[in-house]
Amino acid sequence: MKATACSISIFLAVLILGCDGKVPESADAKKIGSAPKQTVDKVVNETNKAVEQGEARTRDAIDGNK
């Protein structure tokens, strides 16, 4: 019984490893996979805008004090 379970486990492992990179992705799967990257990109863009706005306000404040 143990030999059969071991053989099945090895067969499944080889089967899964053999499919690596060959499984087609659906459009929905690609969209879901890119969601974290889109979220990070959005946060980075918003942060850059906030930094630029802060720099502009600092320059305005310095220019106003001269």
Report on this structure.
The protein has 66 residues and is mainly α. The chain has a domain of 42 residues. 85% of the residues lie in helices and 0% in strands. The chain is built from 2 helices and no strands. It is rod-shaped, with a radius of gyration of 27 Å.
The level of helicity is over 70%
Shape: rod-shaped
Poorly predicted runs of 5 or more residues: none
> What's the β-strand tally?
0
* Helix-strand string: HH
Fraction in beta strands: under 5%
> What is the arithmetic mean of pLDDT?
82
- Intertermini distance: 87 Å
| Spatial extent as radius of gyration | 27 Å
Number of helices: 2
Overall SS class: mainly alpha
For the sheet with most strands, the description reads: none
Provide a compact summary of the structure.
The chain has 66 residues and is an all-alpha fold.
SSE map:
Blueprint: H1 2-18, H2 27-65
Question: Keywords for this structure?
Answer:
single chain, 66 residues, 85% helix, rod-shaped, mainly alpha, 2 helices
